[in-house]
Write a structure and sequence with these properties.
Number of helices: 10
Strand content: under 5%
Number of domains: 1
Order of helices and strands: HHHHHHHHHH
Number of strands: 0
Distance between the termini: 38 Å
Shape: globular
Helix content: over 70%
Radius of gyration: 16 Å
Length: about 200
C-alpha cells in the first residue's frame, strides 16, 4: 500500500514544469498539477507523457503490486492498492500534499480493473468535451458513467463497483472549485493552444 501511494504521489506535472520551463505549475494557469494544466502551459509535448505516466501510476499497483501481495487470496487488494495510488496523486507528500485531481490515475486504476467501463467513459469524456469545451465537467460526467457500466458489465465485481462509487465522490470533491466556477459561469474552457494566462 505504501509503495502504491508513493508511486501515485510522484508529481509528474510538477517535474514537467521544472524540466520544461523551470517553473512551478502551482503558480501558473489553473494552478493544478494535472495534465490539463501541463497542456495549457507547456503544450502537448509535455502533456501527453505526463498523462500517460499518470495513467500508469494507477494501473501498475493493480496489475503488478497486487499480484506480488497475494491478490488471489484477497480479491479486494487490487482495489485498495489502486485507490492508494489515486490518493497519492491527489495528496502528494512531495508537493505539500497538493497534487492533481486524480482523473488520469483513477483512469489507469479502472483501466486495469474494468477496461470496458473505462473505454466507455473515455468516449463520454471526448463527446462531452466536444459539446461543452469544459474539461472539468467532462471529467465529472465521464466518471459518473463508470459505476453504471460496472454494475451492468461486471455484476460479480462488488469491490470494483464500490470503489467506483467512492471514486465518483472523490473526483467530485476534487472538482468542487470547478463546479463553483461552472455554476458562476467563470470556468475556463479548453484551449487549443498553450497559454500562461
Amino acid at each position: 500500500m505504501l509503495a502504491s501511494y508513493l508511486l501515485g504521489a510522484t508529481p509528474t506535472s510538477y517535474i514537467a514544469g521544472r524540466v520544461g520551463r523551470g517553473i512551478d505549475l502551482r503558480a501558473h494557469g489553473s494552478k493544478n498539477l494535472g495534465a490539463t494544466n501541463v497542456y495549457r502551459i507547456l503544450g502537448w509535448k509535455y502533456a501527453i507523457p505526463v498523462a500517460l505516466f499518470d495513467i500508469a501510476k494507477g494501473a501498475i499497483p493493480v496489475l503488478f503490486f497486487s499480484q506480488w501481495a497475494g491478490a488471489a487470496q484477497h480479491p479486494w487488494l487490487p482495489v485498495v492498492l489502486g485507490g492508494a495510488a489515486v490518493l497519492g496523486h491527489m495528496f502528494s507528500p512531495y508537493v505539500s500534499f497538493k497534487g492533481g485531481k486524480g482523473v488520469a490515475t483513477a483512469a489507469g486504476m479502472f483501466l486495469a480493473l474494468a477496461p470496458v467501463a473505462v473505454l466507455l467513459a473515455i468516449l463520454v469524456w471526448v463527446l462531452s468535451l466536444w459539446l461543452t469545451g469544459y474539461v472539468s465537467l467532462s471529467s465529472i460526467v465521464a466518471v459518473l458513467t463508470v459505476p453504471v457500466s460496472i454494475s451492468l458489465l461486471q455484476p460479480g465485481s462488488p469491490y470494483t463497483f464500490w470503489a467506483s462509487v467512492a471514486l465518483v465522490a472523490l473526483i467530485i470533491f476534487a472538482h468542487r472549485r470547478n463546479i463553483s466556477r461552472l455554476v458562476a459561469g467563470t470556468e475556463n474552457r479548453f484551449r487549443t493552444r498553450p497559454t500562461d494566462q
